[in-house]
Amino acid sequence: MSSTTKDTTTDSPDVMVEIRAVHKSFGTLEVLRGIDLSVRAGEVTVVLGPSGSGKSTLLRTINHLEKVDHGWISFDGTLVGYRRDGNKLYELREREVLRQRTRIGFVFQNFNLFPHLTVLENIIEAPVSALRRPRKDAVAAAEKLLARVGLADKAGVYPKQLSGGQQQRVAIARALALEPKLLLFDEPTSALDPELVGEVLDVIKDLARGGTTMIVVTHEIGFAREVADTVVFMDEGRIVEQGAPADVLDRPDNPRTRAFLSKVL
Amino acid sequence: MSLTSDPPLDRPTGPHTDSGTATDMDGGVDHGALTVVPVRHPWRWVAVAVTAVLLAQFLHGLVTNPGWEWDVFARFFTAETILKAVGVTLQLTFYGTVIGFALGIVLAFMRLSASPFLSAVAYAYIWAFRSIPLIVQLLFWFNLAYLYKELQFGIPFGPGFFSFDTMNLVGAMSAAVLGLALHQAAYAAEIVRGGVLAVDSGQLEAAAALGIPRYRQLWRIVLPQAMRSILPNAANEIISLFKGTSIVSVMAIGELFYQVQVVYGRNGRVVPLLMVATVWYILLTTALSVLQHYVERHYAKGAAR
Asked: Which residues in A lie closer than 8 A to residue B303 (C-beta atoms)?
């Protein structure tokens, strides 16, 4: 009876994020020059590229931390930052943008934990204030998340008392506390000492295996090879090449991808 | 022996004395076993001695010089009129601080806001109240009734619904509080703004990315972190306001400095009465400084490893 509806959904697998013709400039510098990208639900997309190629800016446009100049982005079927009415796009109010963001987790390069709040307070802040969860539930959920990232005993500690790797794992737990449908990672291991990179990547890999949709900007080629469903290579504000990791990383078509990979591998 | 630990001060001399140095140089002997002689500071002791003598002379003068009239000081220090005046001074400081900083926080966030209107209003306020000398402003408020006899609510340029007599509405005390608070707000706004600017922009970004409501971003995330750099300046302002309340003596308000003037105007004992005011100012400023220490410690949580 429901076979017809089932057919229509399976026919086009769920697109979680759709990016179309996105342009973004800072002053006279054009950082994004027409980006098109689709990310399907449950997939891991890794974005590679030299610094200044626009990877981080692209990631930040997806949760509207940066406003796009042209083009549009939709997330889970709704436009990011705008509301369509007829053939006009209305800019959303800050309150509405904030509500959209609670469904997208963002992990920063520099962790950006709140230093004056304990690890537990960091994690429950958004669920309690943005989603209005009862504090007790938020605390219980936070404790589970801390156990998941291997920091069950650190709930009462302040961020500065933790190592960089531990701080980033707390930041991931904080992003997960909103139960987001999408996780964005902006160079999550770039600010870490080499010996701490592994513990953070392990947490992200674990999430990827669990079927979380995520977009990861990184320089960790090994991670991309192991975890990514799609690897996207960006250069000078454009996507130069994308595809399965084996294709992009081992048999790149584009000379610029080849040049980049020969430097980092 | 580790070289990173503090140098041992009172270690007994090792087997090597003067004659031993030669063997150290070529023998590669363990230097950790040698006695460490810390740097000496002979001039520091000279300075301490000179200062001690000067201080002793000053204290001796305080005790022996009859001009200080300590008996008069003792009689007035806890006299009822003086205690009442101390109360008025504390009241002026309290209201000036609370209203001034409350308005200052609002002005600071207005000035930092993305709205050009709010930012311009805040800027204009700060410009105006920093430009007008406090004493002039106080006298304006005091003489408000001369300019505007009554305050009326109604349609602008049209009929009014009800009105107040400004003479009764703005008494001397409220004129003083109003003047001090409005003046303080302009300075508080800039101190708060400075503190907010010192908070890493990543903090607001993280709060925004988590979807935390705007007021909560400011109140829970930014302001507590800004407090660390706001507090030393704010304490300065409060202490300066506390002593600055003496300026309202021009409006014949019975605060500490005015009351002291009244008393020595009557009995002619200028120096001991000035000392009464001075000692009260010193005591209460000390109390504020101690309070500052504890408040700063509270807001430093999470800052240490």
From this structure: 115-116, 160
SS3 B224: helix
Of the candidates A192, A19, A182, which has an alpha carbon nearest to the alpha carbon of residue A101?
A: A182
Contact B41/A at CB under 8 A: no
Nearest partner of B300 among A263, A176, A160, judged by Cα: A160
- pLDDT tens by residue, B123-180: 999 999 999 999 999 888 888 777 777 777 778 877 777 777 766 666 788 889 999 9
Over residues B215-238, the pLDDT tens digits come to 999 999 999 999 999 999 999 999
C-alpha distance from B205 to closest chain A C-alpha (Å): 8
Q: Is B298 on the interface with A (CB under 8 A)?
A: no
Task: Output b/e per residue, A166-199; b: 16+ Cβ within 10 A.
Answer: bbbbbbbbbbbbbebebbbbbbbbeebeeebbeb
Strand locations in chain A (E)? 15-26, 29-40, 44-48, 70-75, 78-79, 82-85, 88-91, 104-107, 182-186, 213-217, 230-235, 238-243
Q: What is the ipTM of this complex?
A: 0.90
Cα dihedral sign for B109, B112, B115, B117? positive
In this model, does residue B100 exceed pLDDT 70?
A: yes
A156 burial via Cβ count (<10 Å: 0-12, 13-18, 19+): exposed
Inspect the interface and report whether the beta carbons of A98 and B211 lie closer than 8 Å: yes
With CB atoms and an 8 Å threshold, state whether A98 touches B213. Answer: yes
- Mutate which of B200, B205, B210, B225 to disrupt the A interface (most A C-beta within 10 Å)? B210
Residue pLDDT, tens place only, A48-72: 999 889 999 999 999 999 999 999 9
Q: Do A160 and B299 touch (CB under 8 A)?
A: no
* 8 A C-beta contact, residue B192 and residue B226: yes
Residues 6+ apart with CB under 8 A from A2: none
Question: Hey, what amino acid is at A83?
Answer: R
Check residue A10 and give its pLDDT.
37
Going by C-alpha positions, the residue among A233, A257, A215 that lies closest to residue A48 is A233
From chain B, the residues in CB contact with A120 under 8 A are none
Closest residue in B to A161 (Cα) is B305
Beta bridge partners of A239: A234
Which positions 68-107 of A are in contact with B (Cβ < 8 Å)? 94-95, 98-102, 104, 106
Report the chain B residue with the minimal C-alpha distance to residue A93.
B214
Contact by Cβ (8 Å): A116, B302: yes
Pick B303's closest partner by Cβ from A100, A118, A160: A160
Provide the 8-state DSSP code for A110. Answer: T
